[in-house]
Amino acid sequence: MKSITRTRRVLASLGAVAAVAGAVVAGAPAAQAAGCELAPALSSPEKVYNGATGVLDLPGNNEANGQRIGVYSANDWSDAQRWMIWGYCDGTSAISHGGAGKTIDLDTGSGAVRLMDAPGGWEGLNRPFEYGMPDNQKWRLTDEDRGWYLVRSAVNGQCLKSNGTGQYTSMTSCDRNDPAQRWRF
Fold first, then answer.
1. Thinking of the domain 41-184, which architecture would CATH place it in?
2. CA 40 to CA 180: how far, in whole Å?
3. Residue 91: its pLDDT value, please?
């Protein structure tokens, strides 16, 4: 009888721990206000598919600052089409390419979608809560239809759009019904 009671206590305490952990995850915005200390969620390198055509592509896999971001036909062997998503406590994400701490950046002057260094490089991407990450390198990913996302700029609220295979991406007013603005990670 004592072992059954002990087992029930252990199970009850595990249930309490799970409930607290669930509350912490569900209450992430409240944790943010108190100082978010959660590490960013990191996806493994993957393709980012467009709802109209192709995948997100870094032409020539050229990681020079200022390189424009394009869309091209999917190629399973191309490192130019491998992206990582970093999720932050404030609800934004960074989209990086390669291992040198480069992210998709919105040039607020010209409106060009390009690749640029993240503040602090790879280490900067791995900080939990926007420490030094400028708004033009942060994106809000909103699930609009079973895994198809709009990618909204944190700086102006516009959405990333494919302009077709072999073309550079652009920013435009968000339209959840436009397949060229829908992305699958």
1. Trefoil (2.80)
2. 28
3. 87
